[in-house]
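hey can u check if this looks right to u? its 89 residues, i copy pasted from the old doc so theres a chance i mangled smth
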Amino acid sequence: MLFVVIGSSAGKTRDAIMEIYPRHKAYLDTFVARGEVVGVGPFTDAGGGNMAIFRTKDAAEAFAISDPFFTEGAVKEYQIKSWGDNMLS
């Protein structure tokens, strides 16, 4: 089982998001280095937001609580959903 973290856009401008991005990327890279991230990226439709897939619920929760995109207001909220990827089984 994997865990998907879905972020809802808080409506910040692209410039405001890019100002936060280096801190977000450094934080995310700590999870990537530990092998806890399967995939991550922004949604490209008009609604914005982002999604990351984690190997454990603990990693997903830790990320969602302290990600600079969330703590600095670029993401309004994160939802965590368990996901069964049958292709990996």
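Helices lie at 14-33, 57-66, 68-71.
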